[in-house]
Structures are given as C-alpha cells and as structure tokens.
Amino acid sequence: MIIAITRQVSPDMSACLLTHMEREHLDTVVAAAQHDAYVDALEGMGAEVIRLPPEPDHPDAVFVEDTAFVVDEVAIMTRPATESRRGERGSIEAALAPYRPIRRIEGPATIEGGDILRVGRRVFVGVSTRTNRDGLEAMVRELDHFGYDVRPVRVTGCLHLKTAGTHIGDGVVLVNPEWCATEDFEGVQLLHVDPDEPWAGNAVLVEDQVLLAEGFDRTRERVEHLGRRVHVTPGTELAKAEGGLTCCSLLLNRVE
Ligand code: CIR
After folding, report:
1. pTM beyond 0.85, yes or no
2. Which has fewest Cβ within 10 Å: 31, 64, 107, 222?
3. Which atom of ligand 1 is nearest to the CA of 115?
4. Is residue 98 reached through a cis peptide bond, with omega within 30 degrees of 0 on the bond before it?
C-alpha cells in the first residue's frame, strides 16, 4: 500500500516563487479543484491519501514533495534553497514522524525533494539552482549506509530534476533530454517525452500505474506502448506556479 501525503492549495498561492516562468494570473479556486482531482486520481490508483490543511503563510506549501525525501528506512527532511519555503517543513515532519525515523539536512547544504529521483536502490540527485553540491553530499552521507547508490545529474533547463524526468517503473525514466544531462543517468533506461510536450516528463508512479498531466497525448502513447496503465489529471493551474504532479505528494510505502 502506498501512502500519499498531500496538502491543500494555499489561498495565497498566486504569490508563489517562480524561476523559469513568467507570472500569469493564477486562479486559486481552479488550482484547488485541480488539486482535488489529483487527490482523487491518486485514490483511484490505490493510494491512501492524507490531506493536510493549507498553510496560508506559505504560498508554495502545496508542493509537499520538496520538503522531504522518504525511503523505507528513513524520512530525510530537506533544506529548501529559499528561506520562504523552509517553514513548510514542520507540519510535514509531524505527518511523517508516525511512519519513519526522521533525519534533517543542515546548512550549508540546500536540497529540495523535486531534485531527488529514486529508481530502486539508485538515487539521482539533480544539481540545480535549488540543490547544491553540499546537498548532494549530505544525501550520500544519509543514504550510503542503507545501500543506496547516490549520484548527481546536472539540471540544465528547468527548476528541478523531476521537472525533467521521473521513474515510470521497471527502471525506465521518462525524460525531457533538453532539461537535464541525460548522460549522467547510469543503470536506467530512458524514454524521451515527445519533443512537442516538454513538460510531460513529470509523472507519478503508484505501484505499476502512471499518472500524467492532461494534454500530453503523444507522450502518453509512448508510455502506454511500454504496457503501463496511464491515468491523467488536469494540471494547468498548478503548472502556473511551476509545479508538476510529483510535487503535490510525498509517497511512501506502508512499512509494517
Ligand atoms: C517553487 O518555486 O519552489 C514552487 N513555485 C514550485 C515548486 C515545484 N516543486 C517541484 O517541482 N518539486
């Protein structure tokens, strides 16, 4: 069973951080409806969803993925690069504490969950504007003794590594090769997104099912061609805050 920790959209979401995108009008009512659809989709895929209340003082708090990285052995609280996002961590740590021992990344490391891509026992860490080399090294220290092989991947054209690519099961990473150094991926198979769908690489894997954002039909065909069952959900309003699908949940295996 997969547990998905989610958090409702902040009423102040339109004040979100933006790095690679221009600010557009963001309708928080539409964003909240899309978030509800996302939660429904996760439930439809068999996840048990925990819905945390919104954080009115943290516009980006819906993007819970960035505050932690969870494996079966441990939950590691990250250290977001922007001070404004660090206050999101307390409530996430409290939500994770019943399930995992907690570790915390300390400065000068900065690292955000959107830059951490696990494929089995390999953990790829995006070196980006949000995750620095100290962040990478901190992850090696935290995970090496559990037998995880942690390696860097250079992020070149987007916010986080997982904006560019995500694991869609069986060691396959769905990726936009324009946005990260794909030669840094070792030991995985790459499936490129359709070149006309640059944002399609951010997919959520629940067991053996894949959730894609609506509107990426050509990439969807590529994923289905691999035999995956694909679900879709609307993500346009959340995308205006530079967030994708993975950002909106922290997934963990229920470990007995
Ligand atoms: C930020 O800039 O931090 C938010 N507006 C978007 C975070 C998206 N998170 C993710 O890709 N994991």
Report:
1. yes
2. 107
3. 12
4. no
